[in-house]
From TrEMBL:
PANTHER family: CYTOCHROME B-C1 COMPLEX SUBUNIT RIESKE, MITOCHONDRIAL. InterPro entries: Rieske_2Fe-2S, Rieske_2Fe-2S_sf, Rieske_Fe-S_prot. This is Rieske 2Fe-2S domain-containing protein. Residues 104-191 form the Rieske domain. GO terms for molecular function: 2 iron, 2 sulfur cluster binding; metal ion binding. The keyword Heme does not apply.
Length: 230
């Protein structure tokens, strides 16, 4: 089911989350599971469950129970869906690149990224999505920043562009957020998560280790709301 936590409660667990991601136990999976994302009623998530540019922090866990990921329905400054196209994303740390997935859903506007900052592992609510209405609250955003909105980490100022595969906009991070690959069923208007691409999730030996697997037979992962976002 959907779980709603206050920003204060989430903040209290943030440091613990950082430590867990720095010193992660080595256990995990041999392959990526395919899980259906479910809503507050435990039913498969529909597009209407997602608000365009929602400032409320919306996450789900994948591929392990310890791995939070942002779930975003992106739009413009008028809160109209924007189709997100696949793009080549540079990893500044090593110069390598990867191809981000297209947005999914009826408007191609739904995307998902790891919610663990790639700099030092800070987690929500310290890192969260700033919608177009709150973009100016990111004080260290460069003047030439052109995306409608950003993911920003309040620990040390790292900023990511969710419209371009969570590419690095400002450091100190030298790695984009790992991208989550979603699968959309237009007939049922349902969303599944099936894999990840990009750099390894922060603090892990690889995406499938360093945490607790879902119980055997698990087929769903619920969305979780953390406070009110910005």
């Amino acid at each position: 089911m959907m779980i709603v936590l206050s920003a204060g409660a989430a903040a209290a667990g943030a440091l613990k989350g950082v430590v867990q991601n720095i010193i992660a136990p080595v256990s995990g999976l041999t392959s990526f599971p395919t899980l259906t994302i479910v809503n507050s009623s435990g039913l498969p998530l529909n597009t209407t469950d997602l608000k365009v540019n929602n400032p409320v922090i919306t996450i789900f866990y994948y591929p392990l129970q310890d791995d939070p990921n942002f779930l975003l329905r992106l739009g413009d400054s008028s809160n109209m869906d924007i189709k997100i196209n696949s793009t080549e994303v540079v990893i500044p740390a090593n110069g390598n690149t990867f191809t981000s997935p297209d947005g999914v859903g009826p408007h191609g506007s739904v995307v998902a990224f790891s919610a663990i900052c790639q700099h030092l592992g800070c987690v929500p609510p310290i890192i969260h999505y700033y919608p177009p209405s709150a973009k100016n609250e990111i004080s260290d955003l460069p003047s030439n920043a052109s995306s409608p909105a950003y993911i920003h980490c309040g620990c040390h100022g790292s900023t990511y562009d969710p419209y371009r595969g969570a590419a690095v906009t400002t450091g100190p991070t030298a790695r984009p957020l790992p991208n989550v690959i979603l699968d959309y069923d237009p007939t049922l208007d349902n969303y599944k998560v099936k894999s990840m691409v990009g750099p390894t999730i922060y603090g892990k030996p690889n995406d499938l280790e360093g945490g607790t697997p879902f119980p055997t037979g698990t087929t769903t992962t619920p969305i979780v709301l953390l406070g009110s976002g910005v």
